[in-house]
Write a structure and sequence with these properties.
mainly alpha
């Protein structure tokens, strides 16, 4: 039984469009032109997008802080273990030297 041929999916929008907006003002103009949306509706859409993007940025920043905290705590715990091992070896060397 032959398998059906799969056609390649259409490339994502960012690959099809060479001129995507990079700023909020460019995005507003792009929305108005591309989707025939009024200025007020475009502004409302941009505010909603900004809200979502802002929330995502906040989550990323919180994630970075948490990752740094975890790394710092892990490093501190490792240093404490190494210090303990070094102290134990010093005691062993002192006992052997007696």
């Amino acid at each position: 039984m032959a398998l059906p041929r799969l056609e390649p999916a259409a490339p994502p929008l960012f690959e099809r469009s060479a001129e995507l907006p990079r700023t909020t003002s460019e995005l507003r103009e792009w929305v108005i032109e591309r989707f025939d949306v009024s200025g007020d509706r475009a502004s409302e859409l941009i505010r909603a997008i900004d809200s979502v993007v802002g929330g995502q940025r906040q989550l990323i920043e919180e994630s970075k802080v948490e990752a740094m905290r975890a790394l710092t705590e892990g490093f501190a715990a490792k240093m404490e273990r190494l210090q303990q091992q070094l102290s134990e070896k010093d005691v062993t060397v002192s006992n052997i030297a007696r």
